[in-house]
Design goal:
By secondary structure, this protein is of the alpha/beta class. It has helices spanning about 140-145, 165-170, 190-205, 220-240, 250-265, 280-285, 320-325, 335-340, 360-365, 370-385, 395-410, 420-430, 440-455, 460-465, 470-494; strands at about 5-10, 15-20, 25-30, 40, 45-55, 60-65, 75-80, 85, 95, 115, 135, 145-150, 155-160, 180-185, 210-215, 245-250, 290, 300-310, 330-335, 350-355. Strands 9, 13, 14, 15, 16, 17, 18, 19 and 20 form a nine-stranded mixed sheet that branches. It has a six-stranded antiparallel β-barrel with strand order 2-3-6-5-4-7. It has a two-stranded antiparallel sheet with strand order 8-10.
Length: about 500
């Protein structure tokens, strides 16, 4: 069907027509001056789509919103502009779709500006090295695998191992820290999203948080666009407001599934593990937008915590290995540890942070110098002694110390621990405060210690937050509180 091309030169509007429809992919004829990532309107308010490819004589459009029936012959209108979404401060506290439209039943959101979905990552000259820690509130991460503001830290593991909990706890812990938090739900069930929303309600994250959601029931196009929209919202706060932003992508595996389905409809050839060849670019162009900007650009930062689901611990799969190669480290969630009751089930042997302790508090860095090695040695010793009927007194003592350390690192879900409490805990551990304490009593002892310090010496808490290091005055104050609590414990025993 030949179609006369009509272009409104003044408004730069181009018209075409629908030729063929294949699920969420539409073949359009007549758009001769379009570009990838461009937004098109289909029919009389029947839907919206984004251009994702070309074949001879046709443009391939991915349907991202359908409000009415679409059939061959329907007119398609293109404004010759890149796909942009509204952004602004009014989005804080709202749940929006992959098109940045409210889905929480609230009023329309007033935009401050618009931002391109497929934005360009800042150049090397616009970035500076990471120097500030993002306090996640998860003890085992802050102590041994710290995350810097502007870092890309992968959370990886089998399903139902607590990956989402780690990301949500990091957002809950940003209360009062001037960090904008964005949770991006990609292809998850509505029930799973509701659990996150309940955690947002309980932790009052809505005061500084945004949810961008494209659940499993939403079109594939929205599942594909959701992480880009979340990154664009974050870029507005980073670039225009000089703010620190945390974005949790939950998860990249389902995003890859959605893109694979789209690619099969586009008749693109699959590669390793049946994924299209450009799947690496799809995710890398997302995570490379995370950075810490220099002062000329406002000094803002955007931290990414992408989540990837593995199958039976296979980190060598195509999507997991791709994601590991493009991030600055990974937090590996071990299903065996989870089954044993060690939560968060983070495997210290397979987890790594390439930023390392450069961003840690000096106090934390000093106290955790040998902590990871001690914990890994304990887990190895525990494995070896499982098959032996009896062990020596020395090994028994080492196992008990390891179990005490394990109890120190355990943590309840949605209960992030402030950094100063972690420093007090580690200082007490180093000073032998927990020597001889039964593992079952460790949590109670530490709770009493932190509560006593906060009640009687709030000046120590303020000094820790101010200096971030263990000064002599802080050490003396902590020693005094440790001695007082140890003395009262002896009196109770007597």
């Amino acid at each position: 069907m030949a179609l006369a091309l009509k272009i409104d030169v003044l408004k730069l509007i181009e018209h075409g027509a629908v030729v063929e429809i294949r699920q969420d992919v539409i073949n359009v004829q007549g758009l001769t001056n379009c570009m990838n990532g461009q937004l098109v309107e289909i029919g009389e308010n029947a839907g919206r789509g984004v251009i994702v490819g070309y074949v001879p004589d046709h443009v391939l459009v991915l349907l991202v919103k359908q409000t009415g029936p679409i059939k061959p012959g329907d007119r398609v209108r293109s404004s010759m502009d890149e796909f942009r979404v509204p952004v602004g401060e009014a989005f804080i506290g709202r749940r929006v779709s992959a098109l940045a439209e409210p889905t929480d039943g609230g009023p329309p959101i007033r935009k401050t500006a618009t931002q391109p979905i497929f934005g360009t990552a800042p150049s090397v000259m616009q970035r500076i090295p990471l120097t500030e820690v993002l306090e996640t509130g998860t003890k085992i991460i802050d102590m041994m695998k710290p995350v810097g503001k502007g870092q890309r830290m992968l959370i990886i593991g089998d399903r139902m191992t607590g990956k989402t909990t780690v990301g949500v706890d990091a957002m809950i812990n940003q209360r009062g820290k001037n960090v904008i938090c964005i949770y991006c739900c990609i292809g998850k069930a509505e029930a799973a999203l509701n659990r996150v929303l309940e955690a947002f309600d309980a932790g009052r994250v809505w005061e500084y948080g945004i949810v961008v959601a494209a659940t499993a029931s939403d079109p594939m196009g929205q599942q594909y666009l959701a992480p880009y929209v979340a990154a664009s919202l974050g870029e507005y706060f980073m670039n225009e407001k000089g703010a620190d932003v945390l974005v949790v992508f939950d998860d990249f595996t389902k995003h890859a599934w959605a893109y694979r389905q789209i690619s099969l409809l586009l008749e693109r050839a699959p590669g390793r593990d049946a994924y299209p060849g450009d799947i690496f670019y799809i995710h890398s162009q997302l995570v490379e937008r995370a950075c810490k900007l220099n002062h000329i650009k406002g000094g803002g930062s955007m931290t990414h915590l992408p989540i990837v689901e593995t199958l039976q611990g296979d980190v060598a799969g195509y999507i997991p290995s791709n994601s590991i190669s493009m991030t600055d480290g990974q937090i590996y969630m071990n299903s065996t540890l989870f089954g044993e009751g060690f939560k968060p089930a983070i495997d210290m042997g397979l987890s790594v942070s390439r930023i390392g302790n450069r961003v840690q508090w000096p106090a934390m860095k000093k106290l955790t110098a040998m902590l990871q090695l001690q914990f890994v040695r304990y887990k190895e010793l525990e494995k070896l002694t499982r098959i032996k009927a009896g062990v020596s007194a020395d090994v028994e003592q080492r196992l008990k110390r390891g179990k005490v350390l394990e109890e120190v690192l355990k943590q309840e879900a949605n209960a992030p621990v402030p950094m100063e409490d972690q420093v007090i805990t580690l200082y007490a551990l180093q000073k032998g405060f927990l020597d001889g304490v039964e593992p079952a009593d460790v949590k109670g002892r530490l709770r009493d210690l932190v509560g006593q310090v906060r009640l009687h010496r709030p000046d120590l808490i303020a000094a820790l937050n101010a200096h971030k290091s263990l000064t002599e005055q802080i050490k003396e104050g902590l020693d005094e509180q440790l001695g007082r609590l140890a003395g009262s414990a002896l009196q109770d025993q007597g």
